[in-house]
Amino acid sequence: MQKFIALAFVLVSLNLFAQPSPAETKDNLPTDYLTSAFHEGRRDALRAIMPDNSVMAVFAFPTRTFSNDVEYLYHQNPDLYYFSGYKEPHSLLLVFKDEQTDAEGNKFKEILFVQKRNAGAEQWTGKRLGIEGAKEKLGIPMSLNGNDFKNYNIDFSKFSKIIFDRFPEDIPNGFDKADLFDLIQQFKEKAAIPEQLSNQSKFDTRSYRDLTGQLRAIKTAEEKDLLRKAVEISCMGQNEVMKAVRPDMSELEIQGLHEYVHKRYGAEGVGYGSIIGSGENGCILHYMENTKTKIGTSMILMDVGAEYHGYTADVTRTVPVDGKFSTEERAIYQLVYDAQEAAFKTLKDGSKWSDASKAAMDAIAEGLVKLGIIKNKNEAGRYYPHGLGHHIGMDVHDRGSMSTMKKDMVITVEPGIYIPEGSNCDKKWWSIAVRIEDDLLITEDGYELLSHFAPRKIEEIEKLINQKSVLDNYKLPPLESGKKKGF
Ligand code: GLY
Ligand code: MN
Ligand code: MN
Predict the structure, then answer these.
(1) What's residue 484's pLDDT?
(2) Fewest beta carbons less than 10 Å away: which of 222, 238, 407, 415?
(3) Do 203 and 270 have their domain in common?
């Protein structure tokens, strides 16, 4: 017994029993969500750049059918989450440039229309915040039920600008008479929105993307914290997979391991469908089927981003499954690496994204000519067919202009070379696909490489792949049903 206590003491002091520490309350809930002060600050920042005498309407995303009467896991419109913290569907936020006063003399700067509480519905689909919850937890005093919007007395004609995003065409008109369909119809009627919108009119869909893009492109301290975490978690997934990956694994199994590690660190999901492409499959830029049952010894391209409290990373690593890059794989990998480094060097507050893109393209084009894969540099687009990167944040392809880099932007830099079978070059290059994708925070005089936790250099990757994994001895029994012929 004493021996056991001593052993337990050693294990505890070595921290081997420790969980990976998502911040927790005594109810075992995370404590590091965005706060109501954050969302209020974002609304104030929006008001500061809204045109005079304007109102902005932000609608929830529609729910979508997955199967018969089953819906896809709901994902809130990031704009609505950003400005309110509200995560439920069938809702509408109105943000006013100037303080408003209603007939009873209540003063308010925004109104949030939420889903009405409903015990029956909540038993099936989960607790609703309701108006009391919205007031208390989101700090929005003028919170009303969605079915109050119809008769709510608001004179939209007095505003010089009514700003909203284009409405999706295919929103279902459900049984509930205060669902998103009805909120949009009522808004169109109340605000007298014409069928055809002109760019100059007071009904302004263009400013919606401009204003939200200006704000969302520059990350606050709270957003940087959550993005750092999402990116680090994604790197942990890459590292665990590099150690565990073996030729007899399937693409789905690799996907599962990434996503297990994300969840182990408290990430709720992924910011986009995980891309696990072995060999030729890596040439499909957004390959998400992940159906290959044995990945074999070629390289595997893994583009996976954990979503943590609403913020998504976007990290790609391409690694040789057998632990060693072949001569050709090494040449292409090094070229993509050099292109990424060339782009990195240009980046800082005030730099032009076009310079980063050109630096990467030039490096790839020169390298492909040198390797004899193309004859002229202007053919490089055939093997590098996408842009260099994008903002990340609440969307994986986040809102905002890329033309000039600004401090506190968080972006990806993701050059790649893809040589599908049958390409017009020596066969030895066929089916090689490499993308290296990192996430960077732009700073005053350069950048911070948020995804430095996962190795990028050839030697570092080979070293990690050859390390032991906890999965090395993890065997499951074969399925009984799998023994039947033809199954
Ligand atoms: N994962 C999608 C992209 O890299 O843009
Ligand atoms: Mn990306
Ligand atoms: Mn990606």
Answers:
(1) 66
(2) 407
(3) no
